[in-house]
Amino acid sequence: MSTPPPGPDAGTAPTSQSTLGIAFVLLWCTGYIAGKAMVEHAAPMTALVWRFGLAGLVFAIVALATRAPWGTPRACVHSAVTGVWMLALQFGGVYLAMAWGASAGVAALVIGTMPLVVAVLTVASGDERLRPGQWGGLLLGFVGVALVVADRIDGVTPWPAWLALFAGLAGISIGTVYQKRHASQGDLRTALALQNLAATAVLLPGALWLEGFRFAHAAGFYGPMLWTVVVNSLGGFALLFLLIRRGAATRVAALFFLMPPVTAVFGVWVLGEHITPLKLAGFALAALGVWQVTRRRRAGSTPPLARRP
Fold it and tell me: What's the rounded Cα separation, in Å, for the pair 290 and 288?
C-alpha cells in the first residue's frame, strides 16, 4: 500500500505559517509608526486615499500585466466588500479617532481586542469551535495588550473618538471573518487591487468634501506615505491575505495581540520611547496568548480549530 501524501499541516507547513506570521507582524507594526508620521502632515482620510489609491493602482497594473484572473462578478463584489470593511472602515475609524483626540494607547487597546471579537463571531456563526485552552489564550493576549498600553490611557478621550475606534474594531473584525468565508480563494493580485480601490472610492468623498484633500508637500508626508504603500499595503496585506487563506480566522486574528507590544519596541528605536517592566510583562503575556491560540496539536488528534460540520 502506498503512503498517502502529506497533508497541508505536515512537513514544513507549520514552520512556513509561523514565518509568514512573524513577517506579517513586523511589517504591520511599522505602519503604526509611519502612519503617525503621515497624519501629522495630512488630514486622515486624505492620507488613506493616497495610501490605498496608490496601492490599488499598483496591484491593478501588476494584475493586468500578468493577466491575472479577476474571477466572477460575485467574487469581485466580495473582494470590494472586504476592502470596505478591512481598509476603509478600520483605518478610517482609527485615523479619525486619533484626529479627534484619542491617544495611541486607547486606539491600540480597542483594536487589540479584535481577536476576541473574531472568536465570538466565528463561534457564533458555527465556522469554528475553540478549545478551552484557546479561549484562555485569547484572554491572556488581551491582558498582555492592556499592560503594554496601560500607561498611555489618559481617561479624557471624547466620545466621538470612542465611536470611531469601535467602528474601526468592527471593520477589522467583520472584515476578517467575511474575507475568510467569501473572499480568500481569489487571485491575490486582483483581490487586493479591488480591496484597495473600493476603500479609496469610499474614502475619497470625505477626503474631498470634508477635508479639502489637505496634505503637505513635504518629505515628512511623502516618505511615510510611500512606506505605508510599499511595505504595509503591498507587503503587509499580501501576507495577511495568504494567512487568512491558509489558516482559521481566529488563529490569524490572534496575531494582532502582538501588534501593541511590537509597536512599543519600534517606538523605542524610532520615537525614543521607554520599555518598562510592565510593558515587558505585557509583551510576554501577549506572546503566550498567541502561542496558546495558534499552536497545533500532534498528528492524529482533533484539529485545534476544527470547522463545524
Answer: 5
Q: Which amino acid is at 240?
A: L
Of 80, 97, 98, the residue nearest 200 (C-alpha): 80
Per-residue model confidence as pLDDT tens digits over 87-97: 999 999 988 88
Phi, psi angle pair for 157, to nearest 5°: -65, 125
As a whole number of angstroms, the distance between CA 229 and CA 227 comes to 5
- The answer for residues whose C-beta is within 8 angstroms of residue 73's C-beta and 6 or more apart is none
Asked if 90 and 187 touch (Cβ cutoff 8 Å), the reply is no
Q: CA 195, CA 107: separation in Å to the nearest integer?
A: 23
Residue 239: how many other CB atoms lie within 10 Å: 18
CA distance 265 to 90: 23
Q: Please state, as a whole number, how many other Cβ atoms lie within 10 Å of the Cβ of residue 3.
A: 5
| Helix and strand counts by DSSP (H, E) for the chain | 14, 0
Alpha helices for 213-276 (secondary structure H): 219-227, 237-246, 249-253, 259-271
**307: helix, strand or coil:** coil
- Report the distance separating Cα 71 and Cα 191, nearest Å: 9
253 touches 119 (CB < 8 A) = yes
Output the nine-digit C-alpha cell for 21: 506570521
> For residue 272, how many other CB atoms are within 10 A of its CB?
7
Residue (of 251, 114, 125) closest to 171 by Cα position: 114
Give the span between the Cα atoms of 71 and 73, in whole angstroms. Answer: 7
Cell for 174? 467583520
Residue 145 has pLDDT above 80, yes or no: no
Q: What would the pLDDT profile of 168-185 be if each residue is shown by its tens digit? A: 999 999 998 998 888 878
Domain limits, the chain:
15-294
Backbone φ, ψ for residue 62 (5° rounding): -65, -45
Contacts of residue 11, defined as CB under 8 A and 6 or more positions apart, other chains included, come to none
